[in-house]
Amino acid sequence: MASVVMVDMSNKKVKDVELPALFGAEVKGHLLHSAVVNQLANRRAGTVATKNKALVSGGGAKPFKQKGTGRARAGSNRSPLWRHGGTIFGPQPRDYSYSMPKKEKRAALATAFSSKVKDSAMVLVDKIELAAPKTKDMTVLLKTLGINESVLILLPAENKNVALASRNIPNVKVLRMENINVYDLLKYRYLLTTQDAIATIQEVYGK
In terms of domains, do 123 and 153 share one? Predict the structure, then answer.
């Protein structure tokens, strides 16, 4: 079972914490890949569209008579062969989303959490509290904790001061538990979270 040192906001050791089995899973790269591809596909808007012959305006009248002109017969000046005509086989609005099995999703999340622990990229604090929503206070906190790269701050519940203080800092993102996902866990170098968040993770995903 994996363990990590829990510190306070002054970066002083509080105690050693035994992490749930979710944080000690085998790291499986193919699950991470599947989860990220699934998440990015589900984000796609799929709203691109082109006009085919039926959608282009105009073209109701036959351009010229069928025979006797020496030209190829034509029934509409909005044919794809004509200038300003419709587009052949152009993209149309579509839904790119698809479902991923729940067991695979959970396993991918466990793999992402475990990779943070194995890479020593998980910082566990007893609490994250700011007296005011000041960017300077959050910057000082991150520096005190030794976080000098991108970081994902995972909170068990909404914390407006932390969210507002973090939003102007590059490469820092705050997420609540209900929004946790594999993509963000992999995108950011560090994971900063609290013991309460760990308990919630175990309650929701550790079954």
Answer: yes
pLDDT for the residue 39:
95
Q: What's the pLDDT at 199? A: 86
Over the stretch 97-149, which tens digit does the pLDDT of each residue have? 999 999 999 999 999 999 999 988 999 999 898 999 999 999 999 999 999 89
- For residue 153, the enclosing domain spans 3-44+101-205
- 207 pLDDT higher than 70: no
For the question of whether the overall pTM of this predicted structure is more than 0.85, the answer is no
pLDDT of the residue at 17: 85
Do 145 and 171 sit in the same domain of this protein?
Answer: yes
3-state secondary structure the chain: CCEEEEECCCCCEEEEEECCHHHHCCCCHHHHHHHHHHHHHHHCCCCCCCCCCCCCCCCCCCCCCCCCCCCCCCCCCCCCCCCCCCCCCCCCCCCCCCCCCHHHHHHHHHHHHHHHHHCCCEEEECCCCCCCCCHHHHHHHHHHCCCCCCEEEEECCCCHHHHHHHCCCCCEEEEEHHHCCHHHHHHCCEEEEEHHHHHHHHHHHCC
Tokens linked to 78: 């909005």
